[in-house]
Amino acid sequence: MVPDTEIKRQVREFYDQVGWQEASDGFYQNASYEDLRPVVHEYIHNCHLRVLRHLKPSGYLMLDAGSGPIQYPEYLEYSRGYQYRVCADISTVALQEARKRIGNHGLYVVCDIANLPFRSGVFDAIVSLHTVHHLPPEEHMLAYQELHRTLAASSNAVIVNGWDNPPLTRFLNIWIRLYNWLYALIRPHRKPPFPGKASSTKVTQEAPRGTYVRKHNASWLQNDVGSLMPLRIWCWRSVSVRFLRTFIHSRFAGKSLLRFLFWLEECFPHFFGKYGQYPLIELGKNK
Ligand SMILES: C[S@@+](CC[C@H](N)C(=O)[O-])C[C@H]1O[C@@H](n2cnc3c(N)ncnc32)[C@H](O)[C@@H]1O
Q1: pLDDT in tens, 115-131
Q2: Using a 6 Å cutoff on CB, does residue 139 contact ligand 1?
Q3: Which is the closest atom of ligand 1 to the Cα of 94?
Q4: Do the Cβ atoms of 208 and 23 come closer than 8 Å?
Q5: What is the pTM assigned to this prediction?
C-alpha cells in the first residue's frame, strides 16, 4: 500500500481547487500551461493525434491514468473504439468534469496511479498524459510497474511526460535568453513577449500557480524502467511552450516553421523523442 503522502494531498488539492477550475477565458486553469494560439493549433493537434498510432484501435477497456477532465477534443479520439474509458485520477473535480464530457462511456475511479485498484492484464489500452511527473521521483517506477501490470497481453500503453531539462530544450533556451536580452536592449521599456527563466518546470506567460512536478531523464527511463519492461521512445512534441511563444508567430511564417518541425520529428522520431522536450513512451506487455 502506497501511503497518501503530503505531496499527493497537495497535488490533489491543487487540481481540485485551481487546475480544474474554469478561468476567465473559458478554459481550465491547467490550459494556461499550453499554447492555444491559432498559429500553433495545427502542430499541437497533430502532436496529440500521434498517441493513436501506438494503441489498438478498438477494445473493451481503456485506462486513462490521470485523466483530468479529458480537456482537449483530440483526447476523445483515443477511446472512440473502446466500450469504456476508465478515468482514474486523484482529483474528484477532474472526474466530475470528465463525466460531463463522456458520460456513460466513462467509468470513474478516484485512485493513485502508483497503486492501481485493478486486476492485472485487464486493459486493452492505457494512456497516461502529463501525470507521472506529479509523483515523488521514487514512485515513478511504481507507476510504470502498475501501468505495465494492468495492461493486457499484446497491448500497448502510451505515456507522455516531459523530460528533465533535455538537450534540445537546453540548446533552445540559450536562443530564448539571447532573444530576450536583445529585446531588452532594443526596447528597454517593453517586456519581452515571453519573459521567464529557463527551467524544466512549467513556465507560462501569466506564471500561474503550479504544483509539485519532478521529472526524470531518458537514461533513467531506458536503463531502470527499460530493464523491467519493453519500451520505445518516440516523439510526442519536441519543443516547449516557452519556445513556441517566443519564436512562433503568424507574422513570421509560424505555421510553416511548425510544419517543417513536425516533418523533421516524423523523419527522426526517436532522436526528437529522446532529446526533445516531450517523449511519447510506448510500453508493451510482452518482452
Ligand atoms: C497535468 S494533469 C493532466 C491531465 C490529462 N491527462 C491531460 O493531459 O490533460 C495531471 C492529472 O493527474 C492527476 N494526478 C496527479 N497525481 C496523481 C496520482 N498520483 N494518481 C492519479 N492521478 C494523479 C491530477 O489530479 C490531474 O488531473
Answers
A1: 999 999 999 999 999 99
A2: no
A3: 27
A4: no
A5: 0.92
